[in-house]
């Protein structure tokens, strides 16, 4: 089956550098307001273990779509007004989480994300006009709502492209357990691993980040779960159970002892390997691998 023309056009949108000046202005504004913090992590969805934005767009999308449906049912004008007002209120957290995620993406993703946001702003404006018309008993409330739904559909299509084709919110280490051999695997001799110097090694197809402190060796997947940044090129701070690595791309932080996310934008943990050292041989095992 041939790829739809619309999808091919999206490929061009990804490379449309003419959007970059606007992307730059918006990204700088968002980053100025949202410094790395617990509040920013909440907006990314770090405590939930996956992005908060897809979950929060359900309410405005559903409310707006239902309002348009009710417009075809006599006697439901008041319910349609309530739904549109609810949708408009619910846009606020959806926009906040979306902008937060968007500010830490690759340029191609940000270009598509900018147009996705533009379509949704247009949709929100249409529904606001629709509500204003309905409240003042003017004509055009239903037409504005229909236009808003069309814009919302376009925005949703772009959001799907961003999430699935461009994997902007995906867990980039999901495949790791399927790519490493099951059981214990030889990694290196202990003496081959330098102390307190992050190293990249591979196991099967999977790059690993290896960190050694004395006889203790920590091993996690080297690709950042956010967008595959090389963690071994990041900065390690702390020691022992408090040791963590900061991704060089967007500053996500992962515990080297547990693999958990200590700071977003990543929301999924690193794949954490069990390590045993015997007779100077370092072996690793990923529970659930194979
Ligand atoms: S790739 Fe974005 S934080 Fe690591």
Description of the molecule:
The protein has 290 residues and is of the alpha+beta class. The chain folds into 2 domains: 161 residues; 110 residues, Rieske [2Fe-2S] iron-sulphur domain (Rieske Iron-sulfur Protein, 3-layer Sandwich). It is 46% helix and 17% strand. It has a 6-stranded antiparallel β-sheet, with no helix packed on it. The chain has a 4-stranded antiparallel β-sheet with strand order 5-6-7-8, with no helix packed on it. It is elongated. The mean pLDDT is 94. FE2/S2 (inorganic) cluster binds next to loops.
Q: What labels would you give this structure?
A:
single chain; about 290 residues; alpha+beta; Rieske Iron-sulfur Protein; 2 domains; 4-stranded antiparallel sheet; 9 helices; about 45% helix; elongated; binds FE2/S2 (inorganic) cluster
Mind sketching the topology for me?
Blueprint: H1 5-14, H2 20-33, H3 38-44, H4 53-56, H5 58-70, H6 77-102, H7 107-135, H8 141-165, H9 176-179, E1 185-189, E2 199-203, E3 206-213, E4 216-221, E5 235-237, E6 244-246, E7 253-255, E8 261-263, E9 272-278, E10 281-285
Antiparallel strand pairs: 1-10, 2-3, 3-4, 4-9, 5-6, 6-7, 7-8, 9-10
Helix pairs in contact: 5-6, 5-8, 6-7, 7-8
Bound molecules: FE2/S2 (inorganic) cluster.
Transmembrane segments: 82-100, 112-132, 144-164
Domain Rieske: 185-284
Pfam family, one: DUF2231
